Structure prediction request, 476 residues.
Amino acid sequence: MVGRSVIFLSISLILINASPMPKLFDAYNASFAALDGSLPQDFKTNSRDKEWLTGRVISSAVASNSESSGDEIFSIASVTKTFSAVAITKVVTSEEFAEYFDSEDPLGTKLSAFEELIEKHGSENEKYYISELKTAHQNYSDITLRHLLNHTAGIEDPSYYDDFRADQTRSFRFEDGKYFSPVVRSFGNHSYSNVGYEIAALMAKVVVSEERGTPVGFGEIIREQIIQPLQLHATFTSDEMACEENLVKVKDQNIRVAQSYDYYKGKLTTGQDFNDDVASGGVYSSAADVAKFYRAVASEEVFGENHQAAEKFFAAENFVLSGEPAGERYGLGIRKIADDKTEYLHHGGAGILFYSHAIAERKVGHPETAKSAATLLAYENLTRPIAARLLSNEKKDEKGRYFVDQELSKKMNWLAKTFSSEQLVYLRQILEFSPREFEEKYFEEFQKLPKPTASALPSHLEKMVSKTGSKFNEIY
Prediction:
């Protein structure tokens, strides 16, 4: 394969600056390359201070079925949603909890049926949010587990959600303790929602807590349903983790978690403070463990003898058009692109400091043919602080951090499309020392620089595009 330098930012993939062999792929492309054996050898070692268009990669790890080159533990961000959806599907189809769910369609069980259990076992934040949702959402009585897991419940994340995730605030309240109200969108249409996953997890954990007569967190459910059966020894949930400066502990065990430079905090960090909200992005794992898990999902091994769980998880009714690549569908915490012969099952995750991607391929009707790969990256972001400085807006929280909003995202995309990595590094240095001087004297000159030119697709993406009929810039 002749590769090209590729970057991933927000929802766009951009090809720039053709080179004989790239030293770094983004996580999405690298997992595809690992899957079909075309990943460059020099990617397979941990990397430090290598320039990337959106930042500088601090460390990287990649794993496939055949080999693993990275056992460092990362925040896998939204790849967590596959873990969560599988764990919830196993719970709702288990004989132990059968009385709580619809016998014919357990994933069609309605949120409203759990109000009494939520009142009994939910936290004050959770109970407040559900009561607000009941008032705000005109289709509240129709919301099911399936809607929550395939993002069709019409529940949006607040615009500040991602900024506050790093400070133990996640999905149910502000950092200062003030509750926030639900943001409601069109019910039945796919609209990606982290909060929706926390609500689905709430439904599962109140049932398990009620049946067992003791409080059970969602991290414990993931460990019981996935981590322990598959023996994922390098996989942890954030509710069992604690960070003391740069040392991460799980119970009495010290573990090595990848860190990246957080310009908000001015230091190396694991990417978030550990907390009890797990379902939307709270799993930490290694590339090898994530690849192992994804193969277990595609091969249906993760469901063990619970054949109903496998059947319900992959049921066609779960998969809805996601509005991203043409033909791609989103199911229960997993994306699918398929033709008559082959299915690709995948999910990505992005945080302030980390990118992750996992993929499995299998022949239609033959789960035993499954193979998989996963890639995890930790990096220092360049475009985000530059964009925030250029906007010079006042949209900050009490710690002086810029909120993520549409204006900022547009500026970040413009920077990524317009400037080379070397230019961005220089830009960042200028802004660090004299942002006003840059805005007055240098910005106009940078705008005049020629834009990078796109080049041909890497061969391992051509298969993906052929499945969807989509153009390259619509792939993500």
In short: The chain has a mean pLDDT of 75. The radius of gyration is 22 Å. DSSP finds 15 helices and 20 strands in the chain.
